[in-house]
Amino acid sequence: MKYVRKEIQELKEYKVPQEKYEVKLNQNESPYDVPLNLKKEILKRMLKINWNRYPPRTANPLVEAIAKYNNFPKNGIVAGNASNEIIQAVFQTFCEKKDKVTFVSPSFPIYTYLAKIMNLTIIEVPLLEDFSFDIRSIIKKGKNSKMVVLAVPNNPTGTTIFLPEIEEIAKNINGVLVLDEAYFEFSKETAVPLLNKYENLVIIRTLSKAFGLAGLRIGYLLSNETLASQIQKAKLPFSLGIFSQVAGEVLLKNKEYKEEVVKKIIKERENIFSKLQDLPGIEPIPSYTNFILFKTKFLSGKELFEELYKKGVLLRYFDNPRLKNTLRVTIGKTKENKIFIERLREVINEKNIC
């Protein structure tokens, strides 16, 4: 271990339970696979490409599809190997050792993970009791940070902030405001209209959620051209393979599929939220994403996780003290959601919760 940096030795390995299950609702994936006709189109395109050659370094055809999908200039777009690589490139573009970075807590753990690897100074702003954002504290604590990084909507709480609040933060901090909009297709809200107004704003997206491409790892960034060109230099070259580039391009050009999937998931989300509200000892948090965080008042989150896992349902629990008595459920297909509610109701009845 003498060769390994102290920061790495002290890190906890990033793990998500992947045990055996009947119903998997723990990683915010889309429950809908890419349709066979689109898979065939992707494979047909792949048969015409030379696999022995490196892919386009800047993924130009994919970037053009992203530009059209977002009605956004392609010179302000950076595509990468999942939003995680884009997030890493953003950190490496703007931050040096010991620089201050501000996050809300609890939030997406990758931000803290990367900050620790880079030996940055982490400033955490706790979410309020109802898991809403404390805008005043974010501005106060983040004012002189190199970056303020916010998941909007937030993972794992599902809560969000809107344009007036985002603008308030952008104009009152001295560093870069990074918004992770991984779930914007479900919230129907985006800060893209502010990009022309604030040069310190960066937006990160993914095709893992609404487009159902979690297995292909495609992410992208929207910003002004100046920042995008610098972030592109911080990203590893040729990191996005030809298969992912072609698949992303095909899916973006067939966005009708995505829109139908999002519609189904939002409908199921509202249905599950209503059913959770009716269960004793359960308190769901209103969500703008493809998942719901809910409080459990009769067992800890980990205990309830284990009870449901025994019954074949895999959810997500967290070690964060603020989330000790919560679980997160990804919205699945109707049948999967029905099984989840039935098994949860069984546990409640077994524990004699009225």
Mean pLDDT: 94
Name the structural class. Answer: alpha/beta
What composes the largest sheet?
7 strands, mixed
The gyration radius over C-alpha positions equals 21 Å
Residues in helix, %: 40-55%
Name the poorly predicted regions: none
Described by the principal axes of the CA atoms, the overall outline is globular
Q: What is the strand tally?
A: 12
Strand content range: 15-25%
Q: With helices defined by DSSP (H or I, 4 residues minimum), what is the helix count?
A: 13
How do the helices and strands follow one another from N- to C-terminus? HEHHEHEHEHEHEHEEHHHEEHEEH
Strand order of the largest sheet: 2-8-7-6-5-3-4
Distance linking N and C termini: 53 Å
Characterization of the model:
With 354 residues, the protein is α/β, with parallel strands linked by helices. Helix content is 41%, strand content 16%. The protein is built from 13 helices and 12 strands. It has helices at residues 6-10, 36-47, 60-70, 82-94, 109-117, 135-142, 163-172, 184-187, 225-234, 242-253, 255-277, 301-310, 334-350, and strands spanning 23-24, 77-81, 100-105, 121-126, 147-151, 176-180, 201-206, 218-222, 282-284, 291-296, 313-314, 326-330. The strands form 3 sheets. It has a 7-stranded mixed sheet with strand order 2-8-7-6-5-3-4, with helices on both faces. The chain has a 3-stranded antiparallel sheet with strand order 9-10-12. A hairpin with a 6-residue loop joins strand 9 (282-284) and strand 10 (291-296). Helix 2 crosses helix 10 and helix 4 packs across helix 5 (109-117). The longest helix is centred in the C-terminal third of the chain and has 23 residues, at 255-277. The mean pLDDT is 94.
